[in-house]
Amino acid sequence: MTTATAPATAGPSAGLKKIAVIGGGTMGNGIAQVFATHGFDVQIVDARQEFVERAINTIGKNLDRVAKKQSWLPEQAQAIISRIQGGVGLDVVKDCGLVIEAVTEDAQVKRTLFEQLDKLAPANAILASNTSSISITRIAGWTTRPGQVIGMHFMNPVPVMQLVEVIRGIATTDATMAVIADLCARLQKTPVEVNDYPGFVANRILLPMINEAAYCLMEGVATRESIDQVMKLGMNHPMGPLALADLIGLDTCLSIMEVLHEGLGDSKYRPCPLLRKMVAAGWLGRKSGRGFYEYPAS
Questions:
Q1: Of the listed 129, 132, 133, 211, which one is catalytic?
Q2: Are the beta carbons of 55 and 86 closer than 8 angstroms?
Q3: Using one digit for the tens of pLDDT, what is the confidence trace for 176-212?
Q4: 132 in active site
Q5: Strands, E, within the chain: which ranges?
Q6: What are phi and psi of 95, to 5 degrees?
Q7: Which segments of the chain does DSSP mark as H helices, in order?
Q8: Taking 50 as the threshold, does the pLDDT of residue 252 lie above it?
């Protein structure tokens, strides 16, 4: 993130001024931060007010770190945070040109949400999903505007990572694609268009690697530290697959593997039993304090 203002644009997304982000978790607050940093008014919606307040507080802390690192003027971070509001009601989407869903990776939860958003959002609004694996075509089928439904899969941490996987469903129009590609440029992100297959590109490649690392651990091939060290030092990965799984969330990893297994029907995508067991135990990674590694409360 190198700027605190939105670049001028006369492109297809020029009319977009206000957006809504549904879900204030790690991905949702990161998406909200990036949009606000680039001049957009943002509404964060979550199930409980305390979740919204936590998201805005997290954004404030992140912006303070960025301000110190980039020597911003004191008022710059405050100007960004002032563009972010939040609450528990979906009615705020009524005047938003773009709504981005960033809730849990559960198809039924998403269906209920998109059916509501379709009724509340303006007729010309684009409905986007940050889903990491669920079919955009399927999501679009839950609405009366399938041509205006698209995937915007941001990478974690959103303010730092440049890629946005832009997933086009079978009905997504060229006009919708053009708006989102132009919008990504305004956010100083790189949009990469991919087609609507289970896991898209990023997670179809990444999650089987994580799953295989879990199998290596379960079968006693090596310790967790050794598995991660092999991939860091031998493959030049910045983070080992087991540590990365903890960062993503083991429940999310399991959900994606289940989508891959069901959608592609190949046994090579069978979720590792150890992964299932850890999720059942509530060992979800960093967010729960324990996953493949332990994370003592600071």
A1: 132
A2: yes
A3: 999 999 999 999 999 999 999 999 999 999 999 999 9
A4: yes
A5: 18-22, 41-45, 84-87, 98-101, 126-129, 149-154, 163-168, 190-195
A6: -120, 30
A7: 26-37, 49-70, 74-81, 107-120, 136-140, 174-186, 202-218, 224-229, 241-248, 250-264, 273-280
A8: yes
Residue whose tokens read 């305004």? 186
Q: Is residue 181 domain-shared with residue 207, that is, in the same domain? A: no
Over residues 7-26, the mean pLDDT reads 87
Q: Are residues 44 and 127 in the same domain?
A: yes
Residue 129 lies in a domain: yes
Q: Which helix (H) or strand (E) holds 66?
A: helix 49-70
pLDDT exceeds cutoff 80 at 76: yes
Distance separating alpha carbons of residues 206 and 203, to the nearest angstrom: 5
Is 101 noted as a catalytic residue in this protein? Answer: no
**115-134 per-position pLDDT tens digit:** 999 999 999 999 999 998 89
| Active-site choice (62, 133, 165, 255) | 165
pLDDT higher than threshold 80 for residue 1: no
- Determine the pLDDT at residue 9: 62
Predicted pLDDT at 277:
98
* 261 in active site: no
Residue 189 contacts residue 164 (beta carbons within 8 Å): yes
Q: How far apart are CA 120 and CA 127, in angstroms?
A: 11
Q: Which of 62, 203, 211, 255 is catalytic?
A: 203
What is the per-residue pLDDT across 281-298, written as a single tens digit (0 to 9) for each?
999 999 999 999 999 986
The domain in which residue 91 lies consists of: 18-195
Phi and psi angles of residue 130, each rounded to the nearest 5 degrees, phi first: -90, 20
User: Which member of 38, 129, 153, 211 is catalytic?
Assistant: 153
- Same domain, residue pair 98 and 170: yes
3-state secondary structure of 190: strand
Establish whether 237 is a catalytic residue.
Answer: no
